[in-house]
Each structure stands twice: as structure tokens, then as C-alpha cells.
Design goal:
heterodimer, A: mainly alpha, 6-stranded antiparallel beta sheet, two-stranded antiparallel ribbon, 8 strands, B: alpha+beta, Beta-Lactamase, 5-stranded antiparallel beta sheet, 6 helices, about 45% helix, globular, coated pit (chain A), transport (chain A), protein transport (chain A)
């Protein structure tokens, strides 16, 4: 200890540090620091203080600041010390300024002069100190006065200085890219510096620039590749080795840069394949930093234009990471797998058990990453299992970030893949229960719409009763989750009588509403509960309910909460006004009328146009006098809310069999009104349909953008269109259920598993069960479009499935053809036979993870589809070339309603855009434009018999396949065109 | 990039803090905001047994959503690097190792007290390794020569001011006066 004191440090400082080290509490520490602040405040301004002493004071000042106390009184001393002739004092001055001055502190600018002076110093250490300080202290305003000096230093003969200069430019670039943009060539030249450490620094600078604008740097790719090659071939001096790995951090950065430059750019990526393969092989030396490089390669390989060999290599690396005992490597494995799995789901299947292991890990970070991976693997088959895991974590988590991520994922999952309405409602309610404050309003609203609508016909009450029972249970809890009140009160108010214990519901509501303690955190709960009770009283014959309402309303009639008071008084008035005969309360709040239009049957301005003369007849005189006074007659508002929805027209034309008898009534739609009036039943379906469409319109942004922005993602729209309204009427059996029988053949087709353990422990069996639930559908469900429709259509079957542990066989059939069968206009097309199911789907009897099947036709779900299409291919003469401009095409694409899509495997010789265009030309489609960068084509033709235009969008996929999307105003034409295209593309193969 | 580097001991006392991305907290001074980050970091890393992996994700509000904490635990000290998603996880772990090895060379068996008494020097070492949040130098010899050149220079200048001290330490190039 005594030796410590000799280190130019005074006893004061030593005592301070010792006291803080020994302090037992935060308060004690704060007191010590406050004393220190006082001491410094007193001593630092003293005039005759030596610079050496001042240096120590500044170190103490840094210490005080680090412990969270303000020491602004001493900043000026730091600025002064920076001007010292003594380098070590100067450094402390700069250090203290850099650590303590906040970014907007005016003292920063006071240093500009000193920095300029030091940058021109003949002592390179002073220059380096100034550069180091500049990096920490520079602000946008400081760039112009410093820039000229900095640029000069790029020619300095010390590499230490050049290296730091490059970093200063990097900092300037980050602060204000425009200020240094004119230095482009000079900045690039630093890459060729003779000293590798300067080159490494310049990679940082270029990386920052490339991140912003990758296009301008494509020509540097050969340079980067050759630098990387030189590094891995040990051509740098030994000094740059770290644990015998040549310049690992430079390698990491180069790989990151290559990933940026090679993204979605085939030719650029091709230039990298060789060196990437080299790097990945040479880095694999079993040391930590080697794994870091291997992992970075995985990141790069999955980002750039894919190469199968490299992907396999990456998958092998991931497999090793996952199999490692080291948690850090496991973590990388999971992260890597999450990156691979979205584009190439086949790699996931190998690692089922490893993933399950990580899921049950006690390590929070690993678990979180695994959830992330699961979310990306989600498909219609495993959604229930994965969602249950996500809910489980939501229950346990207190971390705000994680909860938010989980909620948004669960909402998306429920929305995209829900197997049944009941499951959807249950999931959303559970999420709201756990984290109501994080659930977006739209999601709650959508869930309520579904309950109001009651799902598909015939089963409405079951869904509602289910929801009611869920909420009734919550009424009795000590703490009712705050986020749920709106939903809970509404559902109970509307449908409580479906509950098995409906008699006690009203009582429970009344008790809860009167309970101050339980409603503390929920200011609006009381109003909502009161309204629910009013509705119940209106719908129930039970005298007790009315009595409960009356006593509650009387209690709140004088509440200081105006809203509550109003509702209470309204309730009392309604109660008083309704006698046994008149039933005003019942009329005002009829059962299950939330979807009806309250304005139906209301008088309009024109006398003869009304049919419900008794509805608002008392207004007639008022209306008449207003008209006489010159008021404009009431105009029915135009109900155009769904004009843009693709479903709208088609559905109308399909389902309105009888002529429109009379104009529609004014259509202000109220979805969840608390006071629906009127009594229209004939309009039920119409309104429900509109509601349905509005629901689609409300869907989360990712779907709408997918539809509008990128044709690839637009499958969901049509899938939705053939939803609940199409299904019951179509002559064909509901398709989503069709592939179920395929489960049996699946088991026979399973490839032999590599290791067949003789005996399984219970734990193993459990893991395998989980794996089966998890990996069902992975690999086959790549193209799984967001499906709302099956949720409604296959309610019964999937509910059944949810009860039995082994997952149902997934429907990995080509979705477009299946889902679009719903259009009733079409002749009943033969349902395609269930395609062979790949053995990726585990089931209960799977004793070990199944290996990835060799890419054979049997395991390719699309192969079967191709064959099928071939037999049905129509003569290509049906289509005549249609010349369109790209703009024309774009304009037509959006409004064209009917879409069909399919993925077609191409032969290697045929994967170029030209070849595909030539193939489709045989069908009659003429190329509108090819976009080589994204490997997309658009084509157009006219279907001669119907004169319907037909639009093609072809995306060449990395897997030597093409995703063909066809749109036409006529669904039949779209189907024909797709079949013809698929036929043409596969036959030319 | 690296958003910040925090060294904190087993009882939550900050030893070295360096923020490359400033933190803000509504209603707090910059110093207090930094202090609260240190406390959050400490709370989270100290809860994790050493057998867990050395990563923590997205847990420091002030640094934004995509922040990952990568840390190593040595005897009494946690070395925590907060990074964005572009940094290589394992690479940073090795960087911490480089940093600690450099400290070890510089102070000859570094201990917690060295970090307190020579916090300026620790900062200089760190400045050689990481600049503006970017990994700059990982060769320990180069790192130390960057720091030691200045120490030598310092000794020259101080020897004039303080003959006795100069004599006592000029033979040792490393860190004068430590043990």
C-alpha cells in the first residue's frame, strides 16, 4: 500500500479511494464524494497550485464524475491543463475534457485552438494526443476549423499518427458525412497505406461509408477480397497475429464489408465465394477468435447472394456451434441458425434437439435467442407449440424489452398462423392478461370483432361462450389485469348470458364495480363495468340483475366522475322508463346487435324513403321545418370504406343473388357501439361482410406493405379472400383439411434415422415430442402465406388437433392452388392430391432427429405440383402478347384482383432471367421489363377468349427456382396463365 | 460499434467508465445518467453465474434497443463492453482479453487498485485499443509502446522537476511505483 502512495499521488487521494472502497452503502459513498467535491472546489481555484498537483486533482475529478457527481467547477482547469507543455499533463487535460464535457458543452470549442496547435507539433506524441482528444471532443461545429490540419496528417510519417488520423476522419464522417464527402479519394487511398494497421483503420472508415451507400463502393470488392486473401495467407507481418490467427479483427471487418457489398448482387457475390471458403476453412483452428471469424463468415454467407457450397459449409459450422458445450458457442449457433432458417428452412430440422435443449436452458440470454429463432421458424403447423412457449416466457419475464418483443411477436403469430378462432381469441386474451398495456388497440379491436362476428356460422355461440367463460373467471380474481377491462366489460355485457353461470355474472360485475380496492389502478373500469351491467339487465329476465343495476347506478349517480355519473343516470332513466310491458331497456339494448347499423331504419330526409316510421318519427317535424327553412335534404353518405379492397367487388357479385330491391340505408357503420338500436336481420350478413373486410384493411402493416410494395408477399390477400364466406358454399370439401390423411404415408416414407437409440428416457421422449411439435412443417412451409382463412374454415379440425399432443400433418401443399379453390364461380377443380410430405415433420414415434433428406423429387413438395400442372397445361395460343410499359404495368398490377402463384424449380441452365423470359414467351407473355439487380421480371399478355389482361411477376429465387405470380381480373384466366407458365417453365427444363 | 466500456467490481462500484455513445435520461444530469447505466449493467451481469454465456441482449434502455452487453468476469472485476449488433460477439470477448493482458503487462499483475490509482493510464491503454467505438489496435506490444512512449517522455520531463523521483523510476520503463 505504501508503494501506491509513491505513485505521485497524495495521501488525500489515497484516503479517498480507500474510504470509497470500504463504504458500505450508497449513501455513505455519496457523502464521501460530496466531501471530496467540496475539497476540490476549495483547492482547485487556488492560484499557486502546481501543474503536477493539478493533474492529480483532475484525476480525482474524473473519479468523482464517474461516480455520478457533477464536477463542472473544475472543467476549466482541464482546459487549462491541456495547454501545458508537459505531455503527460496535457494528456490528462485532454482526457478529463473528453470524459467529462457533455457533447453540447461550450468549453469544447475552447479547445479548438489548442488542438490545432498540437496537430502541427513536431512531437508526434503531442499530435497523437490531440488526435485522440479530437475523436472524443469533436462536434459538428468543430469540423471546419480542424479538417485542414487533420487531412495534412494523412501524410505523416508515423503510422501511429496516420492511424489515428483515419479514425478522426471516421468520427467526422459519423458527425456530419457531408463535411468530409469531398475527401472520398483521399479516404480510399488510406486503404493502400503501406502499414497494415493504418489499412485496418481505414476499413472502419470505409465500412461506415459503405453502410450508408454500398453502391458507390462495388469496384473496391476485388481490393477487399485480395486484402482478405493476403491476410488469411499469412502475408502480413507476424505482429498482426493474435494467437497465431492473422489480423482477426481486420478479417472480421472485411467480412462485414463484403456482406454489405454482396447483398442481393450475384456478380459481386460470385467474386467472394472463393475467398470466403478459404477464410472459413483456415479460421477453424479451435480457438475463440477463429470461431468469431467462422461465425462472421456465416453471417456474410447468409447475407450475400447465396452459394450452396458455402451455405452447406455455414450449416456445418452452425451444427458444430450448437453441439458445443460452451454456452458462448451455443449462443452463436442459435443466432446463426436464426439467420439461416428464414431463407433456408431445411437446415433447421437437423438441430431440433439442440434447439429444444437451449429452450430449456437456465441461461436467459440463450433462451431469449432461442425464442427469437422459434419465432422465425413459425409456420401454421408449429404455431401452437411456439406460441405456448412465447406465452410461457411472457409469464416469467419482467424485462421490458423482452416483454414488448414477445407481445408483438405473439400478436403477429396469432394473426398470421392461428389455426382456429378459439385459439386466436384465447391467445390474444392471454397476452392481454399478461401484458395488456403493451397490446396495440387494433389487436384488441380485431379480437372483439371476431367475437362479435362469432366466427363461422353455426359455431358462433361456442366461440362467444368460450370467451365469456374466460372473462367470468377473471371477475373473481384479486387483481383484474388493467389492460383487459375494455375487452372484458364489452364481452360480458354482450354475451354474458351464454355463460354456464350467467346468473352470477351480473352479481360478480356489480361486486367488482363497487370494490374500490380492486379497481384502484383502472380509472375507467367502473364506467365500462356499469355499461356492461346495463346491457345485462336489458337482456336478462332476472329481477336480481335489474336490482343490482339499480343499486349500483344509484350509488354512482352522484359520482364526481362525470362520465360515470352520466352513465349511471342514463341507466336509472332507462330502468324507470321501462315497465313490464314496454321494455324500453330491452329495445335500446337488444342482444347480439353489436354488428348492426344503429341508423338502419332511421328516418332520412325524404319522407317515402323510410320504413321504420316509428324509429325517430318525432324528428319529422323538425326535419320538415329545417327543409322549409332552406336546409339541404339529408344525403346518404357514400360508403366507400372498402372500395380498394380486392374482396369487395367479387364477393358482392358472388353472393348477392337477388337484385337490389331498394337503395341501401345510410351506412355509418358502428362496430362496437354500446347502444345499437334498430332491429334489422336481413342486413346481418352484409354488415358482417363489411366488418370482415374492414378487419382485413386493419391488418398489421407488414401484410399491407407486402401486398402493395412487393408482389412476392401478396399471397395472403387472396388466401383471405376465399375465407369463411367462400368455404361453406363451395362444392369442394374444405381444403385445409384435405392433406390430413397424408399423415399416414408420411410415417412410412420417413428416411431411416441414423441412430436408433434402443431405449429412451422419459426426458428424451419429452424432448422429442417437443421437437416434433416444433419442427412440423419446417422446410415445407417456406411459402406459407399469412392465412386468416384456414383459421375460420378449419376450426373444428384444428381444435381437435390442439388437444392431441402429436401435431397434425401439415398441409405443405402449394398454397395458391389450394386456397383459391374457394372462388365459387370456378368450376369445381379437382383438388390436387396431397403432395408427398417430406420427412422433416417429426412425430411422436421419431426416436432421433431425422436427417435432412437428400434433395429428391419425393421430398420436394413442389415437384408434385409441377407434374400436376403439366397435365393440365392449356394451349399457349390462348394468350396474345400485350405490350405494356413498366409504368402501365405498375398501374395495373395493384387494382388487378385475382392472383395465383407458384414456385417452379428450374434447371441450372435455365436460371437466368433471359431463359425464363424465353420460356414464358412460349405461353404468349411478352417481357415488360427485367430487373437484373433483384432478378425479377415482369411480363404481360391478353387472354384472347376473354380479352382479359394477364400480368406476370417472376422472381428468380436463389434455390434455382422461380416464384411466378400471375394476376388477372378474371380468376380463371389467372389460373390458366399460371398453369401454362408452370408448364412452359418446367417442360423447357 | 462499441457503445461503452464499463469496469465494475463485485460490489457494484464503478472502476472505469468510458462512453462512446452518450447516454441520456430524462430529468438527470449526464453524470447521473451514466451512473444509472453503470448500476443497471452491474445488476444484470452480477445476477448471472459464470457458467452462463457472456452475452446479454437489449437490456439497457439508454443505449437503445439493439444493445448487447458482452462481459468477462475476472476475480473481483467485471469488464463489460456494450456493443451494437454489428460487432462480433466472440471478437469482443477476445478484445476484453487483449485489454486485460495489456493491463497485466503494464501493471505487472494488474489488480483492482491499479485501476483506481492509475485510471488515467487505463484510459490511455483503452484509447489505443478502441477509438471512437472502433477496434483499432490489438497487438499488445504496439498498444503498450503507444502508452509507454509517453511515460518515458513524462519521466524525462518530470525528472527535471523532481530529480529524486526520476532516479528512482527511470530504470523501470513500465509503471513507476507499482509494487
Amino acid at each position: 500500500m505504501a508503494s501506491m502512495m509513491s505513485a505521485h499521488l497524495s495521501k488525500d487521494f489515497f484516503d479517498l479511494v480507500k474510504a470509497i472502497g470500504e463504504s458500505k452503502s450508497k449513501q455513505q459513498e455519496d457523502r464521501i464524494i460530496s466531501d471530496e467535491v467540496q475539497t476540490l472546489k476549495k483547492k482547485m481555484p487556488e492560484a499557486k497550485i502546481s501543474r503536477k498537483k493539478m493533474k492529480e486533482f483532475l484525476v480525482r475529478l474524473i473519479y468523482v464524475e464517474m461516480l455520478g457527481h457533477d464536477a463542472a467547477f473544475g472543467y476549466i482547469r482541464a482546459i487549462e491543463l491541456a495547454a501545458s507543455k508537459n505531455l503527460i499533463q496535457k494528456r490528462v487535460g485532454y482526457l478529463c475534457s473528453g470524459l467529462c464535457l457533455s457533447p453540447d458543452h461550450e468549453f469544447r470549442f475552447m479547445l479548438v485552438n489548442q488542438l490545432q496547435q498540437d496537430m502541427t507539433s513536431s512531437n508526434f506524441l503531442e499530435v497523437a494526443a490531440a488526435l485522440g482528444a479530437t475523436i472524443r471532443l469533436a462536434t459538428t461545429d468543430m469540423i471546419p476549423p480542424l479538417l485542414a490540419h487533420v487531412v495534412k496528417l494523412l501524410q505523416h510519417d508515423r503510422e501511429l499518427v496516420r492511424k489515428k488520423t483515419v479514425m478522426v476522419l471516421h468520427r467526422f464522417h459519423r458527425l456530419d458525412a457531408s463535411a468530409v464527402s469531398h475527401l472520398g479519394p483521399q479516404m480510399r487511398r488510406t486503404l493502400c497505406d503501406k502499414d497494415p494497421s493504418v489499412m485496418a483503420a481505414s476499413l472502419c472508415l470505409l465500412h461506415a461509408q459503405i453502410t450508408e451507400k454500398p453502391l458507390g463502393f462495388k469496384e473496391l470488392v476485388p481490393s477487399f477480397v485480395s486484402i482478405l486473401k493476403q491476410i488469411v495467407e499469412h502475408r502480413l507481418p507476424r505482429d498482426f497475429d493474435y494467437h497465431r490467427m492473422p489480423a482477426p479483427w481486420a478479417q472480421l471487418r472485411l467480412l462485414r464489408i463484403l456482406a454489405l457489398l454482396g447483398r442481393a448482387d450475384q456478380s459481386t457475390s460470385e467474386g467472394m465465394y472463393e475467398v470466403l471458403g478459404d477464410v472459413i476453412r483456415r479460421a477453424d483452428t479451435g480457438i475463440n477468435v477463429g470461431y468469431a471469424i467462422v461465425y462472421e463468415c456465416v453471417r456474410t454467407v447468409t447475407t450475400i447472394y447465396p452459394n450452396n457450397n458455402l451455405l452447406d459449409e455455414a450449416a456445418r459450422a452452425i451444427a458444430r456451434f450448437l453441439g458445443s458445450e460452451n454456452h458462448n458457442l451455443k449462443y452463436l449457433g442459435i443466432t446463426g441458425l436464426a439467420q439461416v432458417v428464414e431463407q433456408h428452412p431445411k437446415y433447421a430440422a437437423e438441430h431440433q434437439l439442440a434447439v429444444i435443449d437451449c429452450l430449456s436452458s437456465v441461461d436467459d440470454t440463450l433462451k431469449r435467442k432461442t425464442l427469437d429463432l422459434l419465432y422465425r421458424m413459425m409456420n401454421p403447423v408449429n404455431v401452437e407449440f411456439i406460441a405456448s412457449k412465447l406465452v410461457e416466457s411472457l409469464e416469467q419475464s419482467t424485462d421490458d424489452f423482452l416483454r414488448r418483443a414477445l407481445v408483438s411477436r405473439l400478436c403477429t403469430a396469432a394473426e398470421r398462423f392461428a389455426p382456429s378462432n378459439a385459439w386466436y381469441v384465447a391467445t390474444i386474451v392471454r397476452v392481454m392478461e399478461l401484458a395488456g398495456e403493451l397490446v396495440p388497440n387494433e389487436v384488441a379491436q380485431q379480437m372483439l370483432s371476431l367475437v362479435a362476428e362469432g366466427g363461422e356460422e353455426g359455431d358462433a355461440d361456442a366461440l362467444r361462450a368460450d370467451a365469456v367463460d374466460r372473462f367470468v373467471g377473471m371477475l373473481h380474481r384479486e387483481v383484474v389485469p388493467d389492460g383487459l377491462f375494455h375487452v372484458l366489460a364489452w364481452v360480458l355485457g354482450e354475451f354474458a348470458q351464454l355463460s354456464s353461470e350467467s346468473a352470477s355474472v351480473a352479481e360478480a360485475i356489480a361486486t367488482l364495480a363497487a370494490d374500490d380496492a380492486r379497481l384502484k389502478g383502472a380509472p375507467r373500469a367502473r364506467e365500462l363495468l356499469l355499461t356492461a351491467l346495463i346491457k345485462l339487465a336489458a337482456q336478462s329476465d332476472d329481477i336480481n340483475t335489474k336490482a343490482a343495476l339499480r343499486s349500483l347506478a344509484e350509488r354512482f349517480a352522484s359520482s364526481s366522475n362525470i362520465e360515470l355519473q352520466q352513465r349511471a343516470l342514463e341507466a336509472l332513466n332507462l330502468l324507470d322508463a321501462s315497465t313490464e310491458d314496454s321494455g324500453l331497456l330491452e329495445d335500446a339494448l337488444p342482444y347480439d346487435a353489436s354488428l348492426e347499423d344503429p341508423l338502419d331504419g332511421v328516418v332520412t330526409g325524404e319522407g317515402e324513403d323510410r320504413n321504420g316510421g316509428d324509429a325517430l318519427g318525432f324528428l319529422d317535424r323538425f326535419v320538415a321545418s329545417a327543409l322549409n327553412a332552406g336546409a339541404a335534404p339529408y344525403q346518404k353518405p357514400v360508403d366507400d370504406e372498402n372500395e380498394t379492397e380486392s374482396e369487395s367487388e367479387e364477393e358482392t357479385s358472388n353472393f348477392k343473388f337477388e337484385a337490389y330491391a331498394e337503395p341501401q340505408k345510410p351506412g355509418r357503420r358502428v362496430q362496437q357501439t354500446s347502444y345499437p338500436m334498430g332491429d334489422s336481420t336481413e342486413n346481418d350478413e352484409e354488415i358482417a361482410r363489411r366488418l370482415q373486410e374492414a378487419e382485413y384493411a386493419n391488418q398489421p402493416p407488414q401484410r399491407t406493405t407486402a401486398r402493395g410494395g412487393n408482389a412476392i408477399g401478396s399471397g395472403g390477400g387472396l388466401a383471405a379472400a376465399s375465407g369463411p364466406w367462400g368455404a361453406p358454399r363451395q362444392p369442394v370439401a374444405p381444403t385445409p383439411a384435405a392433406p390430413r390423411p397424408a399423415a399416414a404415408p408420411t410415417q412410412q416414407q420417413r428416411a431411416p434415422t441414423p441412430t436408433e437409440p434402443e431405449e429412451k428416457t422419459a426426458e428424451q421422449a419429452e424432448k422429442e415430442r417437443m421437437a416434433a411439435a416444433l419442427f412440423g412443417g419446417v422446410g415445407a412451409a417456406t411459402a406459407a402465406a399469412p392465412r386468416r382463412a384456414p383459421r375460420k374454415a378449419s376450426n373444428a379440425s384444428s381444435r381437435q388437433a390442439s388437444r392431441s399432443p402429436p401435431p397434425p400433418a401439415p398441409p405443405p401443399a402449394p398454397e395458391p392452388s389450394l386456397l383459391d379453390l374457394g372462388a365459387p364461380e370456378e368450376p369445381p377443380a379437382p383438388a390436387p392430391p396431397p403432395p408427398p410430405v417430406s420427412d422433416l415433420l417429426g412425430d411422436l414415434s421419431a426416436p432421433a432427429p431425422a436427417p435432412v433428406p437428400p434433395p429428391s423429387t419425393a421430398s420436394d413438395p413442389f415437384a408434385a405440383f409441377d407434374g400436376l400442372s403439366l397435365t393440365e397445361a392449356t394451349p399457349s395460343t390462348a394468350f396474345a402478347p400485350e405490350k405494356l410499359t413498366t409504368a402501365d404495368f405498375g398501374g395495373r398490377w395493384g387494382p388487378t384482383k385475382h392472383e395465383k402463384r407458384a414456385e417452379v424449380s428450374l434447371t441450372p441452365t435455365q436460371t437466368t432471367p433471359d431463359a425464363v423470359a424465353a420460356g414464358l414467351a412460349k405461353v404468349g407473355a411478352v417481357l415488360v421489363e427485367a430487373i437484373p439487380a433483384t432478378r425479377e421480371l415482369i411480363l404481360a399478355a391478353t387472354h384472347t377468349p376473354t380479352a382479359a389482361i394477364c400480368l406476370w411477376h417472376v422472381k428468380l429465387l436463389a434455390t434455382s427456382a422461380a416464384l411466378v405470380t400471375v394476376r388477372s381480373p378474371n380468376p380463371e384466366v389467372a389460373r390458366l396463365a399460371l398453369e401454362a407458365s408452370v408448364g412452359a417453365l418446367s417442360s423447357s427444363a | 460499434m462499441i457503445k461503452g466500456i464499463i469496469i465494475v467490481n463485485n460490489s457494484g462500484q464503478a472502476r472505469i467508465c468510458k462512453f462512446f455513445q452518450q447516454v441520456h435520461r430524462e430529468g438527470y444530469s449526464p453524470e447521473e445518467a451514466q451512473q444509472s447505466v453503470v448500476q443497471q449493467v452491474y445488476k444484470q451481469v452480477s445476477e448471472r453465474p459464470d457458467s452462463f454465456c457472456n452475452y446479454l441482449e437489449g437490456s439497457i434502455m439508454q443505449w437503445g434497443d439493439a444493445t448487447k452487453l458482452i462481459y468477462r468476469h475476472y476475480a473481483t472485476l467485471y469488464f463489460v463492453f456494450a456493443v451494437d449488433k454489428l460487432e462480433s460477439d466472440l471478437g469482443i470477448l477476445d478484445l476484453i482479453q487483449v485489454f486485460v493482458e495489456a493491463l497485466d503487462k503494464c501493471f505487472e499483475n494488474v489488480c483492482e487498485l491499479d485501476l483506481i490509482f492509475h485510471s488515467d493510464k487505463v484510459h490511455y491503454i483503452l484509447d489505443e485499443i478502441v477509438m471512437a467505438g472502433m477496434v483499432l489496435e490489438t497487438n499488445i506490444v504496439t498498444i503498450l509502446s503507444g502508452v509507454n512512449d509517453q511515460t518515458k517522455l513524462h519521466q524525462k520531463s518530470t525528472s527535471k522537476l523532481n530529480e529524486a523521483l526520476g532516479k528512482a523510476t527511470s530504470t523501470k520503463m513500465g509503471s513507476p511505483g507499482v509494487r
